[in-house]
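Annual report, structural modelling task.

Input specification for the adenosine-5'-tetraphosphate complex:
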Amino acid sequence: RPRIFSGIQPSGGLTLGNYLGALKRFVEKQDEGIETIYCLVDMHAITVWQDPDKLRQQTREGAAAFIAAGIDPARSILFNQSQVTAHAELGWIFNCVARMGWMSRMTQFKDKAGKNSENVSLGLFAYPALMAADILAYHATMVPVGEDQKQHLELTRDIAIKFNNDFGVDFFPVVKPIIEGAATRVMSLRDGTKKMSKSDPSDQSRINLTDDADTISKKIRKAKTDPEPLPDTLEGLKDRPEARNLVNIYAALAGHSAEQVIADFAGAQFGTFKPALADLAVAKLEPITTEMNRLMKDPAEIDRILGEGADRAEAIARPIVDQVYDIVGMIRSR
Ligand code: AQP
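The model returned the following structure:
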């Protein structure tokens, strides 16, 4: 039976990019009846500095977003990474399998470290090895992610293959990224060539799942665009990253293809298209925000759900990681 694993960092409030590229699709996979394991990856979050109280708050808010978006903790396993020590344990072993050269080629590391790579945490560099552990500790084979995670998943495959070769076993499966839909890469509202990101310093660049209707509308109306009306073919969006981004967001929210949106809005000015997009975004996001706010009133209940999810996750990961210790040659005598 296929098993899905995916995660989101509680490194800030979740954005429309996280929702369309990841969360919405996590729910679809759950509803297809596939075994789904979803994680708030708090240990990844601390690869850059997080205020402890905010980290707790963001982890609970992330869990509330999952549930509000349609993750059912009875059907999916939902937990925070640090409660299942198998991730850290396998992560260390993978640090010893992955090669420095592989890690140095990771574009996300280069982007996040910028010119200051001497001064970022060692954890940020090792991040993709921990991500491989997140997935492989469950022998998951399918990983729904946004386009930006493709390279990390290729590295996960390389780590699995090298581990199997180094120890002469056929233990870890080959992992397949699932990158699908109209919004696998939602771009910043201020710059159509940059990914929408929770850590972008400009709040105007993103829609947060906690934004109210008025804020969402204002951000969309103010989103950067060009002066041309919408074209009548997708081809016409080729060199118009901002216009293309808004069309893709509309398509993903409406559950249509981008072609369909272009057919419906061919020749429309942004003065027409943006209000339509704002109305659609509010209609889709407001119920989620309202439910998140309701869930956040009972943090103890969220913690209980995460703890229960961690118990179920642990029951799957523990025997797999115990076998890894055995394969590697570590004595387990108690
Ligand atoms: N802009 C995006 N478009 C589509 N998918 C996206 N994802 C993130 N941004 C977009 C997908 O969301 C999942 C969780 O991502 P993450 O929280 O692990 O971290 P990230 O990819 O680094 O996202 P952020 O928002 O940019 O966080 P920060 O700013 O902390 O680095 C992944 O499946 C990702 O593809």
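Residues 182 and 252 are 5 Å apart (CA to CA).
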